[in-house]
Design goal:
With 594 residues, the protein is an alpha/beta fold. It has 12 helices and 30 strands. Strands 13-14-17-18-19-20-21-22 form an 8-stranded parallel beta barrel. Strands 3, 6, 9, 10, 11 and 12 form a 6-stranded antiparallel sheet that branches. A 6-stranded antiparallel sheet has the order 23-24-25-30-27-28. The longest helix is centred in the middle third of the chain and has 18 residues, at 303-320.
Amino acid sequence: MLTYSSMYHRPTDEYAYPLNESTLNIKIRTKKEECKSVTLCFGDQYEWKNGVWISHEKEMSKIGTDAVFDYWLISIQPPHKRIRYGFFVSDETSSILYTEKGFFENAPDDPGYYFSFPFLHASEVFRAPVWVKNTVWYQIFPERFANGDPSTDPEGALAWASENPSRSNFFGGDFKGIIDHIDYLVDLGISGIYFTPIFKAFSNHKYDTIDYMEIDPQFGDKETFKELIKTCHDNGIKVMLDAVFNHSGYHFAPFQDVLKNGEKSKYASWFHAHEFPLKGGELPNYSTFAFEQTMPKLNTQNQAVKDYLLEVGRYWVREFDIDGWRLDVANEIDHQFWREFRHAVKEVKPDLYILGEIWHDSMPWLRGDQFDAVMNYPFLTNVLNFFAKETITKQQFIENMTSVMQMYPANVNEAAFNLVGSHDTPRILTECGDNVERMKLIFTFMMTFIGTPCIYYGDEIGLNGEMDPGCRECMPWEKEAWNQGLRNHIQTLIQLRKNEPLLANEGTFSFLSPIEENPCIAYTKKNGSKTIIVILNPSDKEASYPLPFDLKGKKVTDLIDKREFAAEADQLLVKVNSFGSAILSFKMDDNLVE
């Protein structure tokens, strides 16, 4: 008996979306392992013959299974860019038609009963910048990366790495230090840098902005910043800045004016004051970020605030040619502000990348009118739980990651910002219990998954550290302090990703069903006849993984060792070292040439 209550579809968001100007992706959710097949029944509501609505049928493909549901997908090219549709859902003994108006044993003749996608508008295709999906990011916390110009050090700055990081100490990291080490990033293979805030602020993290139009003097000046941007661009590296628009810093001039003049201040409505005079403390009488009295929340529905912040967004793009904005605490700002922000900055630079910091389901921000992507924290959670902490099984990991992928349209997933650590989390090596081999496996997964990967500065050389401030230590520049094997591993993965388009968001991603007695997980990326399979062994014992393909007489290429060999047996077993991986490429129509 089919479970009607488990079937779900809505003609929008991740369930119905334009993939491009002519193709519509349609998805349905059904109860796990209940349905044998799902067939799309569809037609144009205006096409009739002899008084009968003309409809067609096409079988859908099951694209994933999580802990509770199966997901089915089909790509359709409606000739007139509009479509009415329903789903024939079948098990071994029965079939039902699921439509907008309910469930039917016999298909209704009236197209008004069916789901509707009224028109496929080119303007409603989700379009992230094309360059993003091929980018490998590197997050830099500027105060801790490198000190290239001691003359700009803030008062009381300490000698580089002379103490453990704290929430109040300074070591003088600056733009000149980054410029001096750009060759390091180029050698690693980095093609994008995400900087945490660089604007004038009081703290070492700079999330408490004093002036959004000025560079913090400890980093240098605007001319030095222009030099940094040019240096990055000359080396094929994009630059993304951090915008803190949810709240300002305590020393932001308009907030100081409100503190001084209260409700008579011309900036009184720039913030969310509950009463006057303003009072801080553990529970301020004005809205803040996380009850932090030094971070008063900005009123982005105030026109003057909106005008100011939109000009900030435009200014740094227009005058310095930055390539992206990362938006701090983006979910606590109203959607209309972000719609206007997107229009403002994309008008200056259409291929600018807009990345939102959101830790939860972000579909409302990813409809093409606000952000190009969000930071993929659900990815981070599942990766840590499986590879680092071993708190979930391989079956649960695959199911959880399937849920993450099914949260969004396919073209949204391609631009997702995948990370395994940041200035807001413990170091990934620390999460792995200082097990470098586990960490290597995590990077192998991230570099071969869907989306655009990001490395937090120093992770590639084996820095460890607990939550802030422990995760914000100074970058060591003495090579003897580096884990060179780890860096080489990540460097190799980045180069492999660049060389193989299938590993950089081309083709279709699929997990393979886990084998009960085998510790490995495996997944494929396919485009036409070409397939890449990635096999990861998260156990401390060598494993043999049987490839579920008939490869006899085919050429198989080991992309890591760059070896080519002929598959001679009916079934190919791949040996995978403990905490190791295998990445193999083959074509199903590629016959062996003797």
